[in-house]
Design goal:
Radius of gyration: 18 Å
CATH superfamily: NAD(P)-binding Rossmann-like Domain
Largest sheet: 8 strands, mixed
Shape: globular
Strand content: 5-15%
CATH architecture: 3-Layer(aba) Sandwich
Number of domains: 1
Distance between the termini: 35 Å
Low-confidence stretches: 217-222, 228-239
CATH class: Alpha Beta
Order of helices and strands: EHEHEHEHEHEHHHHEEH
Number of helices: 10
Length: about 300
């Protein structure tokens, strides 16, 4: 891939792209890049006000940016359902879906539907979103892509289906790792089901940003009320983190580059995968566990109440 950059992205004129968490960090930078290439970008944001502020900022540098800010709270299955219904009614087809939004290392909380929040937002919300947008992805004029954002933290995750919601034992980093492992299991299982059902118009690709300097790192310390941890995270971001613009490159490459094969995993090519240009990488053995992937899919359907039939 060399030093691939956004300049090498193809024209996206006429394409519809959905980005979750589009108002900040990686989602904001991804939205800006998609818009610059001519796509209509549906900005799926928990806060419409923050989404509109982000859209206004993008339009100051890209005057003709085609942006559609819509409310989508991944911690609420009813919000996800309302969002996807609106997108299907308005656009019909979706060409790229970036499952990007997430929360990291927060104190234990539960979503509106009673899920542990990190698993609920990072995985279950995106599972329901992808399933409900599946008819629109199949309706794309070309080959649609589902890009799911994971993290190197998947390596500290473990799929304990006997305590999936971490009710008996909760560690904020362990729960984050589990949610990021779930992202990969989902992305790979989706591609396996695409292949098994002879679906040739959608590809599922996973990615991770390395260590990117975004607001994601600050929510945990803020919700813990720890100024010391917050200050430490700010120092770590300044010393170790690459920019959000650079961190968004693996997602943009996975979404738009030619020759992408479903089931790939894209991350930065630098030291320990923390920074650099996009390259294909290998995730850990647990992320390729076919039994865990199948069980997670079944459990996700049961928990969300959303049947995801890839052949439909």
């Amino acid at each position: 891939m060399g030093d691939w950059s956004v300049a090498e992205m193809p024209s996206l004129d006429g394409d519809t792209v959905v980005v979750t968490g589009a108002n900040s960090g990686l989602g904001f930078e991804g939205t800006k890049a998609f818009a610059r290439k001519g796509a209509t970008v549906v900005m799926a944001c928990r806060s419409v006000d923050r989404g509109e502020d982000a859209a206004a900022e993008i339009r100051r540098s890209i005057a003709d940016a085609d942006l559609d800010v819509r409310q989508c709270d991944l911690a609420s299955l009813s919000s996800v359902a309302g969002f996807t219904e609106g997108v299907r009614d308005e656009y019909g087809g979706v060409d790229i879906l970036c499952n990007n939004a997430g929360v990291m290392a927060i104190p234990r909380q539960e979503t509106e539907d009673g899920f542990e929040t990190q698993l609920g937002v990072n995985h279950l919300g995106h599972f329901a979103l992808t399933a409900r947008l599946w008819p629109a992805l199949r309706a794309s004029d070309g080959e649609a892509r589902v890009v799911t954002q994971s993290s190197g933290a998947h390596e500290m995750g473990e799929m304990d289906f006997s305590d999936l919601m971490s009710e008996r034992s909760y560690g904020r980093w362990a729960a984050y790792g589990r949610s990021k492992l779930a992202n990969l299991l989902f992305a790979y299982e989706l591609q396996d089901r695409i292949d098994d059902n002879g679906v040739d118009d959608v590809r599922s690709v996973a990615c991770h940003p390395g260590y990117a300097d975004t607001n994601l790192q600050f929510r945990g310390p803020q919700e813990m009320g720890s100024n010391v941890r917050l200050a430490g995270m700010k120092v770590a971001n300044a010393l170790l983190g690459q920019s959000a613009k650079q961190g968004a490159l693996p997602m943009l490459y996975a979404a738009t580059a030619d020759g992408i094969i479903g089931g790939e995993y894209v991350g930065p090519d630098g030291l320990l995968g923390m920074r650099g240009a996009p390259e294909f990488q290998q995730s850990n053995e647990a992320s390729r566990d076919e039994d865990d992937a199948a069980e997670l899919w079944s459990v996700s359907e049961e928990l969300t109440g959303v049947e995801f039939d890839v052949s439909a």
